[in-house]
Structures are given as C-alpha cells and as structure tokens.
Sequence to fold (206 residues):
Amino acid sequence: MNKKPALIAALVGVGLVIVMMVGLITPKASQVRAKQKDVTAAVQKQSLLALQLSQLQAAAKDAPKDRKRLAKLESQIPSEADLPGLIRLLNTTTDKASVDFAAIAPGSPTPSGSISVIPIQVTIKGTFFAVDQYLYLLENLQRVSSVTSVTVTPLDQTVSPPQLQVALTANFFTTDTSAGPGSIPGGAQAQPPAVEPTPVPSPTGA
Fold:
C-alpha cells in the first residue's frame, strides 16, 4: 500500500490546522497586547492619581497652618495703607517705651512693584534705655518695617540720666498698589480716557 498520499494529506491537514490556529490566535494576541497596554496606562494613571490625592490630602492637612501664615502676613503687610491705624500703633509704641517726646510725620505711599511703600519720619527724645526700648519695639511691631536711616544726637548731658534724640526714617508696606498720589485706582485697572468738555454757545452769539 502506498502511504505517500496519506502522508501528504496528513501534512496538508496539519498545515491547515496550523494556518487556522495562526489565523485565530494572532488577532487574539493583538487584542491581548492592546489590553496589556491599556492595563499599563491605567496603572500609570492610577499611580498619578494616587500621587495627586496624597498631595491634596497633605495640602488639606496643612491648610490651617497656611491660613495662619496668610493671616500673619496680612497683619504684617496689610491690604490697606491704614495711616491712622499705623500712627496709633507708633504712638502706642512710644507710650510703652516711656520716651519723653515723639513726633511722627508720615509720607505719601509710593507704589513699588506689587506693593506700596509708606515712609514715616519719627523723632523721639528720652533716656538711653527708653530710646533703646523704643527701637526694640519698633523692630518687633506687628507691621513689618524697614529702617532706612538713624541719627542719634546727645542732648543735655548734665541731667541724670542723660537725654538722647533719635531721628529715623522707617518704611512700612501695603499690598494696595493704588495707595498714594499718582497711582492707578484699583491697582492694575486702567484710567478711563479723558473726556473733552463740549463747548456751549454764548447767549450773545459771540
């Protein structure tokens, strides 16, 4: 019996089976690879979301501290110039330091970048310890200040304790950039265009 045709038929059958399996498996393999990519992307997205969630939770946890910091910053550099309140603060400081005399002369706020600078000239007279106490209190005021100049002059040295006079200039600050002359009301808002007056005819026709 010739087994060659049967072998050929068997090989053809195996080939057909292999072709059919390849035809069926290849699309499935492509789908599996696509799903694997989707899974990888989902895992990466989940990791990113988990990181963002942890950051938001940390921010929520720190929110009370941040609000306290913002409130402190608002008191140090307020959103309004509040010159009357600033003068009262300086007067209270002179009372606490027990200086004999104090003169306070605030200048006009000047816009400087994102803040306005309020220069104030202060002249005080008193003993060394009173003057020293005043300067310490000035450095630790609720509102932030920057002393730009200090002049110390000895007065009558025959009295006990000796008297000193201190003249200084201190800058205070506000986030209100519309404070002071020449500034733009509302900070970044533009000034409205000037309107020329309309001429009115004279009753006499002149």
Notes: Residues 39 and 141 are 59 Å apart (CA to CA). The chain has two domains: 1-76, 83-174. The first strand starts at residue 101 and ends at 106. Strands lie at 101-106, 110-112, 115-127, 145-154, 163-174.
